[in-house]
């Protein structure tokens, strides 16, 4: 009922799950250990902040936690047996036990609730939809009570949280009292019109409501309408009192929801004696203290939950918040050392002071700029950038003072370098004061920080846990961020001494062992990561073993391995690497230059040279697997080598006509192919000269994106004269593109047809004849062989097949024999089997008939263009080999098709259904939608249907709509496109979509190819295999399913890539009706949970355009920061990270969002800096995003927008203005108000929250 009420939007939305809320074991970086507070947070799965807040409250309710831990496996069962049908395993309490044990004992910063939500029966949509925490509280308690039936813990929820109220009506005439008792797990109190909690309780349980005047009460004893008084009292108080505040209301005048944000107080301790029916007990029975406050931040249509919790058992380490002054006790322990005066004009001194003053002796790289501003009151750009350059470069240039740690995300001081703060003070400028006993211990830290007088409070905000003061609770009395649920406990509830500072108190032994084993594995993974994270594998290419050929470097010797592999510490400098290579190559003489290289299809190409010997390999973007070319920096084997991305070579396929004599000989041999490499900055004229062609020769490019002329022809486009001065990069020519060279005398050949700037080349398949073989009805074997006759019929791609049939009848002289007999043409496969009849209303090309092949003239009827030819068989007699044939309209439904097939097969009854025969000739998927037409189900000619006895299969199967990712500009895309063409001629616009690049060009086209039905327990690899059985994809050959990429579509857009070959579809959160898209790859792919596939487009220098996009798989598992992405792009293009300008394209807004190399997030309220992750707000990088890259070394244009972006923005603005002028005045008045500017956001349908529980009675 609160499905969209608490939907997250704006700045208050929950932090997104970076990997679907799953913790994938193995293969990824281990989670970080707990912070200084020694408490673990909970990972947000996308919209589960309300669940996290409630779970933390229950965890820090020691009595609840210990009651749950008291239930052993003999009562709850074992999780390993949950899939056994006879076992009754109470999964929800078991998963809750494990989660609590991990939160208490496992040394990790965050724990995952994925297993717990799986036990709830939630899918991915439920985990990303936010609900009301009060509703969850009631439903979770109900689920636990149902799960614990017939166990010793069946009543512990009732004992801890159950209370009762009594409603009384007193007759003023006779004094009769009518009472009704009600149970409660939480009290819901009003907020509107009340100043605080105590006032709301007074109105509920002290004030009386009088029935008088026209509102009289009928007394059962007086049997008449009388004056009466109604009141309510608390009869039974639970040990734990939960109070829900009605913050959300409905304005009936405006017909909209709103949130009460006014001032509403609640006490830290409360005495409920005035509100109880019996008030004669001791005060301890009525006194409660506050220990948890669940807070809602945002409005009525979106927001975020977090919780303030009092640590009853002192499990965490409380420290004063940073913004608050330190307590007096701690101030006495400190050494009063006056900070020396800083030389603000010296950035080295200032930065060293900032780093040295940190307790951890390090500062996050993206927070250093803000710390500098706090220190001197000015930013780096204003004070130092003009003289010293960017702050990152400054740190790299002073590697003798600073070093990068934690994968380059933090700046620290080298141990031997004294800083202005840590260096020993001289008597001239410094005098120590007080506490002289600790002077010999540098920077002492007190072992225990004084705890607040009224207990330790923490703010648990999903993955983040911070210390707060008790006074911070008062800030939650009002505003958009205010208290929503209050949790009180009786003051008489005391905790044993052994429970203090003991997270393992009363935790079962098997859970202690589980936590111990997980901690051991985490420690081992962290040690392995530390050992391997700083080691990179470099591939060295030595110049004496290479030569320059066709614009690229090639190995001189084929047999000899020219690559030297070197394991090196990336924290060392370029100079250290150079010295190591000198020691490896004893015979090297002269200068040595190290240049980043990449192996391209055209050969090895060089990019930027490492010139600064004092910087580390990490700082210059050298990652594991990088290639370095070792040379003198000028030439290789006497030839000058061009370096840089602009000279990147392109491998072209040069095609020429065969030089064989005679037209027939030429047609048989076709075009000759030659592969040549050229530098990317050479012009097309220089390419022609390099090929040795004359000025009159024509250069042609294969027509892209079109169907061509088909029927044995291929279309080429002549490069216009103005293109001869353009470079290969400007013409967007890529590796593998074909270029046709035509000399003037070849244009007169009949194999070519020149029309304007188009050239049509006839290929060997267009030999303009078809062989037709007559196959009469089967009689005696001897007659059949004697009567088979053949004839070669002249044909072309435009000839109708009906004409081909008539000519064949005339050539075979069968006019009299076939008078009044229907006959048709059928193709024959390699095994001699007859294929379905071809449609005689189509021409040879459209029917998919290749010239120079054979057709059979057989008795039978040819299907029309609106009909299908299908085979069918009966599953009950598969061994008989009987197979029927039927011609049926494409518009017929599955039910009508089944009826027609049953009549031909002589079967009766309704207990039959149809299944498709897959490509393995095995019975495949059932046709579930009986009312769908054959055209909607994408049936094609020659498919086989199996009439199967019985009803349709049971539920538990997923029906997924499959799209095909077609790349017309690539060889793989063409092959897949060819299989689809001719089979979806009736496809509508809604069955095709385009994937648009940033410059408006179509990167690919998406087409619907059919549907698959598969079990939820099948793996992703099984789904890929079944997708290949779809008729349009049966001819698509891939070695393994890893050569296919499956996308999940959402809103008709590519949303995410499905990962994990062995994960089940249930684990991947796929549900029936979802759409997936299959893409063929040229290499195997197995993406990790935090590897993001991006479309990268590098800008054309001096122009507002981009080169065609390239795929980049960015590994964000170790470091999702902007710096990491810059380094990955730099390694891809062989450039320095600081020379790149990067931005993300926003297709819906037609704008670009810059990704700064030194960007940081600053909280508006608390002014705290946070390390920025590109996987989170505001960028939310995901699979398929378009990333624009500018090379500042050769391109000074920092504007990423293109002309297409501006045109679309102008078009949208005109449509917006036209829509506004067409509205009526009443609509304009209705949308007035500060909160109604802009279009209204569409709300998701409201879905009730539920938790699935098994039956244990």
Automatic annotation (TrEMBL):
Biased composition (Basic and acidic residues): 1205-1216, 1224-1235
SUPFAM superfamilies per record: Cysteine proteinases
Positions with biased composition (Acidic residues): 1-11
Domain USP: start-end pairs: 40-491
Domain of life: Eukaryota
Gene3D superfamilies: Cysteine proteinases
Disordered: annotated segments: 1-41, 1203-1245
Name the record gives this protein: USP domain-containing protein
């Amino acid at each position: 009922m609160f499905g969209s009420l608490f939907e997250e939007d704006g700045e208050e939305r929950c932090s997104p799950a970076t990997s679907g809320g799953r913790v994938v074991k193995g293969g990824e970086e281990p989670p970080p250990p707990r912070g200084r507070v020694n408490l673990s947070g909970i990972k947000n799965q996308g919209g589960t902040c309300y669940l996290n807040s409630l779970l933390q409250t229950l965890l820090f309710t020691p009595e609840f936690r210990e009651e749950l831990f008291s239930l052993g496996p003999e009562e709850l069962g074992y999780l390993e047996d949950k899939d056994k049908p006879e076992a009754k395993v109470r999964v929800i309490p078991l998963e809750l036990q494990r989660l609590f044990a991990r939160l208490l004992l496992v040394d990790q910063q965050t724990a995952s609730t994925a297993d717990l939500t799986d036990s709830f029966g939630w899918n991915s949509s439920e985990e990303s939809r936010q609900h009301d925490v009060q509703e969850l509280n009631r439903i979770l308690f109900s689920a636990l009570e149902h799960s614990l039936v017939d166990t010793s813990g069946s009543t512990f929820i009732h004992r801890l949280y159950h209370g009762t109220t009594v409603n009384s009506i007193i007759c003023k005439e006779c004094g009769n009292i009518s009472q009704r008792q009600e149970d409660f797990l939480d009290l819901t109190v009003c907020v509107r019109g009340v100043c605080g909690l105590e006032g709301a309780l007074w109105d509920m349980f002290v004030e009386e409501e009088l029935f008088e005047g026209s509102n009289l009460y009928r007394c059962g004893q007086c049997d008449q309408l009388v004056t009466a008084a109604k009141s309510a009292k608390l009869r039974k108080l639970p040990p734990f009192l939960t109070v829900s505040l009605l913050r959300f209301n409905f304005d009936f005048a405006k017909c909209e929801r709103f949130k009460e944000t006014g001032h509403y107080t609640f006490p830290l301790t409360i005495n409920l004696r005035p509100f109880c029916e019996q008030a004669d007990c001791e005060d301890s029975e009525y006194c409660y203290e506050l220990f948890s406050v669940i807070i809602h931040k945002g409005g009525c249509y979106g927001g975020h939950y977090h919780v303030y919790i009092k640590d009853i058992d002192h499990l965490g380490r409380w420290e004063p918040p940073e913004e608050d002054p330190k307590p007096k006790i701690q101030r006495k322990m400190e050494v009063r050392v006056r900070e020396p005066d800083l030389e603000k004009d010296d950035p080295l001194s200032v930065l060293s002071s900032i780093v040295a003053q940190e307790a951890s002796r390090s500062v996050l790289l993206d927070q250093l700029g803000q710390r500098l501003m706090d220190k001197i009151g000015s930013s780096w750009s204003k004070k130092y950038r003009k003289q010293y350059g960017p702050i990152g470069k400054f740190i790299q240039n002073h590697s003798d003072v600073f070093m990068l740690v934690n994968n380059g995300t933090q700046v620290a001081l080298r141990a031997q370098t004294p800083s202005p703060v840590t260096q020993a003070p001289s008597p001239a400028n410094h005098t120590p004061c007080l506490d002289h006993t600790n002077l010999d211990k540098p920077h002492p830290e007190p072992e225990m920080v004084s705890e607040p007088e009224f207990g330790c409070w923490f703010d648990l905000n999903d993955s983040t846990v911070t210390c707060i003061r008790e006074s911070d609770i008062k800030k939650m009395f009002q505003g958009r961020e205010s208290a929503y649920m209050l949790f009180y406990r009786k003051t008489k509830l005391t905790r044993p001494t052994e429970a203090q500072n003991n997270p393992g108190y009363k935790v079962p032994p098997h859970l202690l062992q589980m936590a111990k084993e997980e901690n051991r594995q985490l420690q081992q993974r962290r040690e392995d990561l530390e050992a391997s994270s700083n080691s990179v594998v470099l591939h060295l290419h030595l110049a004496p073993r290479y030569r320059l050929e066709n614009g690229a470097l090639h190995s001189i010797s084929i047999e000899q391995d020219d690559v030297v592999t070197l394991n090196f510490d990336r924290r060392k400098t370029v100079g250290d690497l150079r010295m190591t290579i000198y020691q490896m190559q004893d015979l090297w003489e002269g200068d040595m230059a190290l240049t980043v290289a990449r192996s391209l299809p055209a050969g090895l190409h060089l990019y930027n040279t490492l010139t600064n010997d004092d910087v580390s390999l990490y700082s210059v973007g050298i990652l594991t697997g990088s290639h370095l070319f070792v040379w003198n920096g000028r030439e290789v084997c006497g030839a000058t080598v061009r370096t840089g991305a602009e000279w990147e070579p392109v491998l072209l396929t040069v095609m020429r006509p065969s030089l064989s004599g005679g037209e027939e000989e030429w047609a048989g041999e076709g075009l000759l192919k030659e592969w040549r490499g050229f530098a990317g900055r050479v012009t097309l004229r220089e390419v022609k000269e390099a090929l040795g062609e004359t000025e009159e020769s024509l250069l042609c490019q294969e027509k892209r994106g079109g169907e061509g002329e088909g029927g044995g022809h291929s279309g080429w486009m002549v490069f216009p004269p103005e293109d001869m001065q353009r470079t290969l990069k400007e013409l967007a020519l890529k590796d593998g593109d074909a270029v046709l060279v035509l000399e003037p005398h070849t244009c007169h050949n009949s194999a070519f047809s020149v029309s304007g700037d188009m050239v049509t080349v006839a290929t060997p398949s267009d030999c303009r004849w078809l062989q037709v073989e007559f196959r009469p009805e089967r009689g005696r074997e001897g007659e059949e062989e004697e009567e088979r006759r053949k004839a070669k019929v002249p044909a072309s791609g435009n000839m109708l097949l009906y004409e081909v049939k008539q000519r064949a009848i005339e050539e075979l002289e069968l006019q009299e024999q076939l008078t009044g007999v229907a006959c048709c043409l059928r193709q024959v496969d390699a095994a001699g089997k007859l294929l379905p009849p071809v449609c005689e209303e189509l021409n040879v090309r459209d029917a998919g008939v290749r010239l120079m092949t054979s057709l059979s003239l057989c008795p039978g009827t040819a299907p029309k263009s609106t009909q299908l030819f299908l085979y069918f068989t009966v599953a009950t007699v598969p061994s008989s080999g009987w197979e029927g044939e039927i011609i049926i309209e494409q518009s017929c439904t599955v039910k009508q098709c089944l009826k027609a097939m049953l009549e031909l097969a002589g079967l009766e009854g309704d207990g039959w259904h149809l299944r498709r025969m897959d490509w393995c000739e095995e019975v495949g998927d059932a046709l579930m939608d009986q009312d769908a037409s054959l055209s909607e189900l994408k049936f094609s000619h020659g498919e086989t249907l199996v009439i199967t006895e019985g009803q349709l299969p049971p539920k538990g199967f997923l029906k997924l709509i499959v799209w095909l990712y077609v790349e017309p500009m690539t060889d793989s895309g063409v092959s897949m496109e060819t299989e689809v063409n001719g089979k979806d001629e009736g496809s509508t616009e809604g069955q095709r979509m385009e994937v648009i690049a940033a410059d408006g060009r179509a990167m690919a086209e998406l087409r619907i190819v059919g549907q698959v039905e598969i079990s939820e327990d099948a793996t992703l690899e099984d789904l890929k295999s079944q997708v290949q059985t779809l008729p349009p994809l049966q001819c698509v050959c891939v070695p393994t399913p890893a050569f296919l990429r499956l996308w999940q579509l959402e809103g008709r857009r590519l949303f995410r890539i499905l990962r994990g070959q062995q994960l089940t579809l249930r684990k991947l959160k796929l549900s029936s009706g979802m759409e997936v898209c299959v893409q063929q790859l040229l290499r195997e792919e197995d993406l990790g949970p935090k590897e993001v596939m991006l479309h990268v487009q590098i800008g054309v220098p001096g122009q507002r355009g981009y080169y065609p996009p390239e795929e980049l798989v960015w590994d964000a598992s170790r470091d999702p920061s902007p710096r990491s992405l810059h380094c990955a792009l730099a390694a891809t293009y062989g450039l320095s990270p600081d020379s790149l300008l990067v931005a993300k394209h926003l297709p819906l807004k037609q704008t670009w969002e810059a990704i700064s190399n030194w960007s940081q997030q600053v909280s508006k309220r608390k002014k705290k800096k946070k390390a920025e992750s590109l996987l989170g707000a505001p960028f939310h990088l995901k699979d398929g995003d378009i990333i624009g890259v500018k090379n500042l070394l050769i391109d000074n244009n920092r504007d990423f927008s293109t002309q297409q972006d501006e045109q679309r923005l102008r078009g949208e603005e005109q449509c917006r203005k036209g829509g506004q002028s067409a509205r009526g005045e009443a609509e304009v008045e209705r949308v007035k108000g500060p909160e109604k500017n802009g279009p209204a956001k569409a709300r998701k349908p409201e879905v009730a929250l539920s938790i699935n529980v098994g039956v244990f009675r």
